[in-house]
Amino acid sequence: MSGRPSDSVGRVDGPEDLLGARILIVDDEAANVELLRHVLEPAGYSNLVTTTDPLKIADLCQQSPPDIVLLDLRMPNLDGFQVLESLPDLVPDFEHLPVLVLTSDTSREAKSRALSNGASDFVNKPLSPGEVRLRVSNLLQTRFLQLALREQNTLLERKVRQRTADLEEAQFEIVERLALAAEYRDDETGKHTKRVGILSAKLAREYGWSKSQVEVIRRAAPMHDVGKIGIDSAVLLKPGKLTTEEFDHIKEHVTIGHGILSGSRFSMLQMAAEIARYHHENWDGTGYQAGLKGEAIPESARIVTVIDVFDSLTHKRPYKEAWPVEKALEEITGLRRTKFDPRVVDAFFTLYERGETEGFTEETAAPKEVEPAGAPS
C-alpha cells in the first residue's frame, strides 16, 4: 500500500457518537495503519486505537471495547481468522460489533471463512479511501442503530413488566377487598384476614418454604374464607348451636370460595383457590368437603388451617368470646395428628416460643404492622 489520501476530504455526517466511536485498527504493517489513520482522522473520527501486533488485541479490548474493528487477515503469530474467533470472548456485545476486513485475498474461500467467523464487510487492498470511509460510516451507523433499538426494546420490556405488575396488583387488591368484605360479616374489625396472612407467611417460612413462596401465601391466605360471602347471615352469625342442615350450608363456603378464585393464571390466586377449597380438611381425613387425608391435603391449606383456628379461637366473634391464649394452644395440641399436620403444629409452636405470635391475639393487644412483603420476621 502506498500514498496518502488528501487531508481535504469532508467530515462524515452523523451524530457525535458516530465520530467518537472507538475504532480499533489491526494490521501488522505500520504503513497500512498510518494510511488508515490519515483516511479516517480528516473525516472526523477522533478515537482511533491501532496496533501492529495482533497479540495485543485482548488487552486493548479489555481496556475499552471497540465499536468497530478494521482487521487485516494475513498477519504473523495470530492471523485475522484467529482474531475473529477470539473476539466473541473479548467483546461483551460481539453480536453488534462490526468487523471490516482489509485484505488482498479476494478468494471465495477466504471471504466465506471470514464471514462465518463474524466478519461484517470487506475492503480489498489496495484500499480506496472513499470506500473505507463509506463502509466504516455505514457499519457504525448500523451498530448504533442496533444498540439504540436494543435499548428501546429494554425500555419497552421494562414498561410492559411494570404495567403487568400494576395490573396484577390491582387484581390482587380487588380480590383481597372481596375477602375483606366477606370477613366483615362475622369479624367486625375486619382484621382476621390480615392476621391470617401475616401468621401464615411466618409459619410457611418456619416450615421451610422459600422467600417467594412465603410471599405468595402471605397474599393468598387472607382469601381463605372469601366463600362466606355466599352464606346466609342468619346461619353465619347464629349464636347457638347449628343444625345439621345449617352446618351443611356453612360447609358450602369452601366450594363457593374455590369457585370465585379458581381458573386464574396467577400463582397467588391459584394458591388462594387451593387454600379456600381445602383449609377445612383434617389430617385424619374427617374434614370437609373433599375428605382428603394427611399429605394429600395441600401444604398451603395445612398451614392456613392451624393459623385460622388459632386466630379464630383467640378473638371474639358474634357467636363466641375470645379464648385465652393458653387454652387455644391446648386445643391445638389436642388436635395434633387429628385435625392438624403434626409437623405444621411443631413449626407453629416454634414461632410461639420465639414470641412471633405476640400481638396477634386479643390477650396480647393489637397486632404490630407486618414486616415487608416476602420477608416475615
Descriptive report:
The chain is 51% helix and 6% strand. The longest helix has 55 residues, at 129-183. Strands 2-1-3-4-5 form a five-stranded parallel beta sheet, sandwiched between helices. By secondary structure, the protein is mostly helical. It has two domains: 16-154, 3-Layer(aba) Sandwich (Rossmann fold), CATH 3.40.50.2300; 184-364, Hypothetical protein af1432 (Orthogonal Bundle), CATH 1.10.3210. α7 (192-207) packs antiparallel against α8 (211-220), α7 (192-207) crosses α14 (342-353) and α11 crosses α12. It has helices at residues 16-19, 30-40, 57-63, 80-90, 108-116, 129-183, 192-207, 211-220, 233-236, 244-261, 267-278, 299-313, 325-334, 342-353, and strands at 23-26, 48-51, 68-72, 99-103, 121-124.
